[in-house]
Amino acid sequence: MTAAPNASSAERVLTVPNLLSFMRLLGVPLFLWLVLGPEADVLALVVLVVSGFTDYLDGYLARRLGQTSKLGAILDPVADRMYILAVVFGLAMRDIIPWWLAIILPLRDVMLFGLVPFLRTRGYSSLPVHFLGKAATAGLLYAFPLLLLGDDTGTVAGLANVFGWAFAIWGVGLYWWAGILYVWQVRRLMATVPPLKAQ
After folding, report:
1. pLDDT tens string for the chain (199 positions)?
2. C-alpha dihedral (106, 110, 111, 112), degrees to nearest 10
3. Burial of 165 (0-12, 13-18, 19+ CB in 10 A)
4. How far is CA 72 from CA 57, 61, 89, 143, in A?
5. Considering only CA atoms, which of 16, 10, 13 is closest in space to residue 57?
6. How far apart are CA 101 and CA 111, in angstroms?
């Protein structure tokens, strides 16, 4: 049975899920160093696999242990975006993916960041993550390890490259589609919710 979260647990910082999220964030510079320094691609892939596993684990434990928190709700998507940015930058520096792909992904996040001031006028700091955004992130987090694995010769590398680009194309499309839906949600919010009264 899943423990029910309470108001005090929502404010907690030192929880098992939050510690896992902090560990994920520490893996970002490690991944970049492995890819751009010694080009230890196998170890870099291990970092990505561990990150993906802890991403699942921290959400599961937060629900199971009743340790959902406001900090955890922020750390999880931040860690996802940091990994996406780190991977696209590392792969672009290695000429595994084109620079246009490395640019259009963070552009979407810049667009969404620009919506925050409008949300604040209605008393919101962010919009809830919806399934499309999660599916897009999952697609990208599958795509880039496969593309890194595909930066080699042989049958396995060739298959990894094909599947990696398939996930990348779908992931980028869904990523931007989710972004456009967020813009539409903000537009509806601005039209239907009155602004906060000045104190």
Report:
1. 334 445 455 567 778 878 888 888 899 999 999 999 998 988 999 998 888 888 778 777 777 877 777 777 777 778 888 888 898 999 999 999 999 999 998 899 889 888 888 888 888 877 777 788 888 888 888 898 899 888 888 899 999 999 999 999 999 999 999 999 999 999 998 989 888 875 5
2. 100
3. middle
4. 12, 11, 25, 25
5. 16
6. 16
Radius of gyration of the chain (CA): 19
Residue 103, both tokens = 């640019």
Which is nearest to 124 in space by CA: 173, 182, 181, 76? Answer: 182
DSSP per position, the chain: -PPPP-HHHHT--S-HHHHHHHHHHHHHHHHHHHHHTT--HHHHHHHHHHHHHHHHHHHHHHHHTT---HHHHHHHHHHHHHHHHHHHHHHHHTTSS-HHHHHHHHHHHHHHHTTHHHHHTTT-S-PPP-HHHHHHHHHHHHHHHHHHHTSSSSHHHHHHHHHHHHHHHHHHHHHHHHHHHHHHHHHHHHHHSPPPPP-
